[in-house]
Amino acid sequence: MFAQLLSDISSLWARYGSVYLQGIANTLILAVTATLIGCIIGFFCGILQTIPYGLNDNIFKKILLKLIRIIIRVYVEVFRGTPMILQAVFIYYGMPYFFGIAFRDIWTVSIVVVSVNTGAYMAESVRGGIMSIDVGQFEGAKAIGMNHWQTMLHIILPQTLRNIMPQIGNNYIINVKDTSVMFIIGFSDFFAVHKMVSGAVFKYFPSAFMEMGGYLILTLVASFLLRKMEKKLAGKSNYELVNTDQLVMTAGTYNYPKEAGSPFEEVNKDYKGEKK
Predict the structure, then answer these.
(1) Structure confidence at residue 230 as a pLDDT band (50, 70, 90)
(2) How far apart are CA 193 and CA 265, in angstroms?
(3) pTM for the whole thing?
(4) How far apart are CA 181 and CA 162, in angstroms?
(5) Phi, psi (5° rounding) for residue 229?
């Protein structure tokens, strides 16, 4: 039985290997591009949600910030609360139906759908990452005259990026797998190739076995690289403590003034090994 499976897989790869590789390439391009764009959306939304305002601020500023937070909240809840496959159907088929906007490029629609979906998840991750930074760092930045955007750019966001790197990696791995739902609008990803090949040769399980192994390899490689990146951002796990102060002169090199009648005269003699 296992020999038959290997034989079927070998014949499929010999006949459709280039098609499978093209599907893998499309999957990786879409996952990487959508994850990067989704991170940008998430960081933008996270920053907007954390802009502070007080009782003494302008009424228009408070209304605007509250309105922005409501819009972001609706966006996050809608795209986190609905399946990506239905989001793809709504954008690809619903936009022409409601607004007369037809998308002719499958790549554009796929990138938009996966990016916006990823951005909804990243928005909450970034917001939580920003809120986890000690409030003293915000106060310190404000004390030296930095505004909110300068504080975010130079102090808060670098630390937030390091803290949420596991979540970014998790979203990328999810995108590698979830791009498979884009076949519903005709995107030729890895899973769409499996559907095409299995329908052409009627060997569903051998093709599915290849797909499963391919997705597993893609995710394992991504996990390995992301762990390497996390360790790089985290820095060394231990540091050597400095036991001596390089700015302090070592013992025996102190020179004291030798003024007549000075109490330091006898001390100087002792340091030089002279007897009283």
Answers:
(1) confident
(2) 93
(3) 0.77
(4) 30
(5) -65, -40
Length of the chain: 276
Find the angle CA(52)-CA(126)-CA(227) to the nearest 5 degrees. Answer: 150
Q: Which two tokens stand for residue 144?
A: 């030296």
Pick the more confident residue, 246 or 133.
133
Which residues neighbour 36 within 8 Å (Cβ) at sequence distance 6 or greater?
none
Q: Which of 28, 15, 1 is nearest to 222 (CA)?
A: 28
Percent of the chain with pLDDT over 90: 27
CA–CA–CA angle 182, 188, 192 (5° rounding): 75
Measured N-to-C along each axis, helices 2-49 and 106-132 cross at an angle, to the nearest 10 degrees, of 60
What distance in Å separates the CA atoms of residue 47 and residue 72, rounded to the nearest whole number? Answer: 11
How high is the pLDDT of residue 259?
54
